[in-house]
Write a structure and sequence with these properties.
It contains 14 helices and 19 strands. With 511 residues, the protein is an alpha+beta fold. The protein is globular. The two termini are 41 Å apart.
Length: 511
């Protein structure tokens, strides 16, 4: 098992896409087996050494940034063990360090689809599961959680458990009891909070009455155990795809179009999301993505064909087959005409080359903004909030009212189909950064007040832990910390992620 200790060798494992500074560790270890990980964790528990799990480093909330101790890098756990076809889909078994793009390619070569599709496809499968990653296709397919059938997990004590969906549940009193290979059991009580009723949620531990225990680890951000291997459910690969970037002169028309497209898509869905199961010929978006007027101003730096009078745009995708392609296209054109889109100046794609161009357009905005932050030496202030359907229009107005007419640059874009857009405030200096973070807190408070969540897809990490109190309050945070102590009695895993260390102290545990 490889171990690195030299500062220049481990520097890349002390940060992630959050750009939080100050990460430090004594060494980085590269296990190749579950036994390697179990031994590292057992030793760390005995010596009370902090352990941070390192995936690909694509996370944006500093979950991978270590605050001392050691780093377990999953880079060498990179084997796709199997991809198998079954009636109506298939399964894949992959280790935690497999890159998403490699899994998707392997699966698609077998005529299958792994639906989760976050923007950064270089991410690791283990990290995707640890954050319950989602993305544009989540509007139709849901987040990573829906596709996890089995997990092999190494616990902080060195025990290894294998959880299969459907086999182990919490009881009616919210108690869970997990058997260990040693013959012992882990017993814990789930927190008593109710999660926000939103389409996407990645804030704290997943809790439901009589829940499947496997779901507790999905989205737990490396605080309860180390995901070593996963078995994922696969769907049939769609035959074709229609996508478009459509522009609007009037924001009210754009929002009405989104409401209409969303409602029709939800109404038209059958039990299976596959075109082959009977949804052929019906309007059924798998992605609905938003770009506001400020986003389009940024994008005109690279795309001079963006219409000058456009105040917003929607990127959409829908799966098709040869028999239904024309009918589906006509339905979309009819919907666009009804809502006064700038159809003649919009862009559509039905072949892979044109799809790639539209995806490039969709992904260009984050790249342009990262260049902005590098130029001004500032950290991004970006929201990740989602709200219920009925609250979204008001939430969008709240964002706009707080920012329009001020001196802060910003963009609003993202997953409007799930009432989940990212507001990116772009400070140019420290004074603007202070203003931006004050506005961010207002957004957090508003999202919670209307029944939303503070993080829909990126998780809490170290950057947002102070805001988790806004969502759940002190009592529920203590319940979460007590749950963590049941799995990690020495508090070694993911220190600083999700909780302040004071919540995990002995004095706090006795309250």
């Amino acid at each position: 098992m490889l171990t690195k200790t030299q500062p220049d060798e481990i520097q890349d494992y002390l940060s992630d896409a959050s750009y939080l500074k100050g990460g430090n560790a004594s060494r980085v270890v590269f296990p190749e087996t579950v036994e390697d990980i179990a031994k590292i964790l057992a030793d760390a528990t005995q010596t009370q050494t902090p352990v941070t799990i390192s995936g690909a480093g694509t996370g944006t909330v500093a979950g991978r940034v270590p605050l001392g101790g050691i780093v377990i890098a999953t880079d060498r756990l990179n084997h796709i063990k199997s991809v198998s076809r079954e009636d109506g889909g298939g399964t894949a078994i992959a280790e935690a360090g497999v890159r998403l793009i490699d899994l998707q390619r392997a699966v698609e070569s077998e005529g299958l689809l792994y639906p989760p599709d976050p923007t950064e496809r270089g991410c690791f499968i283990g990290g995707n599961i640890a954050t319950n990653a989602s993305g544009a296709r989540t509007f139709k397919y849901g987040p990573t959680r829906k596709y996890v059938e089995r997990l092999q997990i190494a616990l902080a004590t060195g025990d290894v458990i294998d959880l299969r969906r459907g086999e182990l549940h919490a009881d009616r009193n919210s108690l869970i009891r997990i058997p260990l290979p040693s013959g012992r059991f882990i017993e814990a009580k789930l927190p008593s909070y109710q999660m926000p009723q939103v389409r996407k949620h990645a804030s704290g531990y997943y809790i439901e009455p009589e829940m499947d225990v496997i779901d507790l680890f999905i989205g737990s951000e490396g605080t309860l155990g180390v995901i070593v291997e996963a078995e994922m459910k696969l769907l049939p690969k769609p035959e074709g795809l229609l996508s478009g970037v459509v522009f609007f002169e009037n924001e009210a028309d754009l929002l009405a179009f989104v409401r209409d497209a969303r409602e029709r898509s939800l109404q038209n869905r059958v039990r299976s999301p596959s075109v082959s199961e009977g949804n052929s010929g019906r309007l059924d978006a798998r992605a609905l993505e938003y770009f506001d007027v400020e986003s389009l101003r940024f994008l005109r730096q690279k795309y001079d064909t963006v219409p000058e009078k456009a105040t917003g745009a929607i990127f959409f995708e829908q799966e098709t087959d040869a028999a239904a392609e024309d009918e589906i296209m006509n339905q979309w054109l009819s919907l666009l005409e009804r809502h006064h889109a700038l159809t003649d100046q919009s862009w559509f794609a039905t072949n892979e080359q044109d799809h790639a161009k539209l995806r490039e357009f969709r992904h260009a905005l984050p790249v342009l903004m990262n260049e902005w932050f590098a130029r001004h030496n500032q950290r991004k202030v970006s929201t990740d909030m989602s709200v219920p359907d009925e609250a979204f229009a008001g939430m969008l107005r709240f964002y706009q009212d707080a920012l329009r007419g001020g001196d802060l640059r910003y963009t609003i874009f993202g997953h409007i189909g799930d009432n989940h857009v990212h507001v990116n405030i772009l400070p140019r200096n420290d004074d603007e950064a202070e203003k931006a973070w004050a506005i961010y807190r207002q957004f957090i408070q508003r999202a919670v007040a209307v029944g939303g969540t503070i993080s829909a897809e990126h998780g809490i990490g170290k950057l947002k832990r102070e805001y988790l109190r806004e969502l759940y309050g002190d009592e529920h945070l203590r319940e979460m910390a007590a749950l963590k102590r049941a799995f990690d009695p020495a508090g070694i895993l993911g220190r600083g992620t999700m909780f302040a260390e004071s919540l995990l102290s002995l004095q706090e545990s006795l309250r």
